[in-house]
Specification:
The chain is built from 11 helices and 5 strands; from the N terminus they run αααααβαβαβααβαβα. With 221 residues, it is of the alpha/beta class. It has 2 domains: 84 residues, Methionine synthase domain (Methyltransferase, Methionine Synthase (B12-binding Domains), Chain A, domain 1, Orthogonal Bundle), CATH 1.10.1240.10; 130 residues, Rossmann fold. A 5-stranded parallel sheet has the order 2-1-3-4-5, sandwiched between helices. Helix 1 packs across helix 4. The longest helix has 21 residues. It is globular, with a radius of gyration of 18 Å. The mean pLDDT is 89. This is Cobalamin B12-binding domain protein. One of its GO terms (cellular component) is cytosol. It holds the Pfam family B12-binding_2. One of its GO terms (biological process) is homocysteine metabolic process.
């Protein structure tokens, strides 16, 4: 029998190193050794991505490294997620994310999507160049808690205002978070969005707080 900590550490290190094969190997070991897959996601995958984020902040890693780590984490989560107890994640929330119509820069939203998944949040990643109405329709269909909009161009970011207007009219309880290179906190206020994320880590904390507040509100009704 392999030590549980060795397996979780191996999974975390595989994520840090962007090693997809090892990430899959350790994810499979989690299942073989009857380790809680939810714990493996949080204490293996997520812990590894936290290390990656710290290294990125310190200039020790760059965007290509982050994407490799993200891919490794996704491979592990693909193995583990089907075995997670639904009771552990039913309150974790639902997020719909994507890059706004007219924009094809998806590196940032891919990272946000991966980190949200690693936190146990159900994510519907619509990809890039997403029509405004798709955000609304999918959010309706999956009963989303939050919609995350990304834009890396000043021309495309103006479409965020239209999505916010549509959301307020059709799904007023769903919160809207925006982010991306040209986007700012002031712009967030101007278009009436609920939150501005400065980076991927900021986005995760915002989404978690939105979901926490939503659950608290529903519990008090």
């Amino acid at each position: 029998m392999t030590d549980k900590n060795d397996i979780l550490n191996g999974l975390a290190n595989a994520v840090v190193n962007g090693d997809k094969d090892k990430a899959i190997k350790f994810a499979q070991k989690v299942l073989e050794e009857n380790i809680d897959p939810y714990e493996a996601i949080t204490d293996g995958c997520t812990r590894g991505m936290h290390v990656v984020s710290e290294k990125y902040d310190n200039g020790e890693m760059f965007i290509p490294h982050i994407m490799l780590s993200s891919e490794a984490m996704n491979e592990a989560i693909t193995v583990l997620q089907p075995h997670v107890d639904v009771e552990r994640t039913k309150e974790s929330g639902v997020a719909v994310v994507g890059v706004i119509l007219g924009d094809i820069h998806d590196i940032g939203i891919n990272l946000v999507s991966s980190l949200l998944k690693s936190a146990g949040i159900t994510v519907y990643d619509l990809g890039k160049d997403v029509p405004y109405e798709d955000f609304i329709e999918i959010a309706k269909d999956v009963n989303a808690d939050v919609i995350g909009l990304s834009a890396m161009m000043t021309t495309s970011m103006m479409g965020m205002k239209d999505v916010v207007k549509m959301a307020r009219r059709e799904i007023p309880d769903v919160k809207i978070m925006i982010g991306g290179g040209p986007v700012s906190r002031d712009f967030c206020g101007e278009i009436g969005a609920d939150a501005y994320a400065d980076d991927a880590r900021d986005a995760i904390e915002i989404v978690k707080e939105i979901i926490k507040e939503d659950r608290r509100r529903k519990a008090s009704v």
